[in-house]
Amino acid sequence: MSDMMKGHGIEPIHQLLQNILSGGTKKTIYENYSQLLRIGNSTGWNILTGVVIGLLTFFFTKRTQINKYDGNYMQTETGGT
Has residue 51 been placed in a domain? Predict the structure, then answer.
């Protein structure tokens, strides 16, 4: 647990998120996903579930963003119900 507090994490999670958020190929994302599922008996599935819920929450709820051009905060609403 202390390694997580230092910012260290499970590499397949980082690779999967990086490829999803940066527009990686389907093949690369599938490879990352497969690597993640090989962790433990159900640990990989549990982690993947958390990642999916986190991404859905991030993309489909109101969130505050910093405008890249002038540094001002702006409220954005994206999809969701």
Answer: yes
Range of the domain at 58: 10-76
Q: Would 5 be classed as within a structural domain?
A: no
Overall pTM surpassing 0.85 (yes/no): no
Token pair, residue 44, equals 């990989």
Q: Is the dihedral of CA 62, 15, 20, 34 positive or negative?
A: negative
Q: pLDDT tens digits for 30-51? A: 999 899 999 888 888 998 999 8
Residue 57 to residue 62: CA distance in whole angstroms: 9
**Count of helix runs (H) and strand runs (E) in the chain:** 4, 2
